[in-house]
Amino acid sequence: MVDLNMNVLVIDDFKTMRRIVSNLLNQVGFKNIDEAIDGESALAKIAEKDYDLIISDWNMEPMSGFELLQRIRASEEKIKTVPFIMVTAESKPENIIKAKQAGVNNYIVKPFNAETLKGKLSAVLGEF
After folding, report:
1. How does pLDDT run across 84-94, given as a tens digit for each residue?
2. Which CATH number goes with the domain that contains 18?
3. Which of 11, 33, 53, 86 gives the lowest tally of CB atoms within 10 Å of its CB?
4. Is the dihedral of CA 43, 81, 106, 115 positive or negative?
5. Domain count along the chain
């Protein structure tokens, strides 16, 4: 059973996109959603709080979502096993392969809706 009260971290450098993803998460039942504006601020939040799911944009400055994924997977902390979903506007096969090799759990191409998000989350977390 998926815990809809789990802590979710949404990372995107565009406020509008963070709001869209957070709203879609609310629509499918998630309540505890925090936001970060880039990889660095995400790491700061992760240092302060335990997260059960990370949804990150790929293209961000100064630390991209891909670099964040690499840092998290290389960590010695519990965070290294947390489900990580990458969001991107690019569906290049080489990027998907690169992200999979780095340990991403799933990949969502923008634009997407609540149904698509729920499907990707169900594939990672189990049906809910």
Report:
1. 999 999 888 99
2. 3.40.50.2300
3. 33
4. negative
5. 1
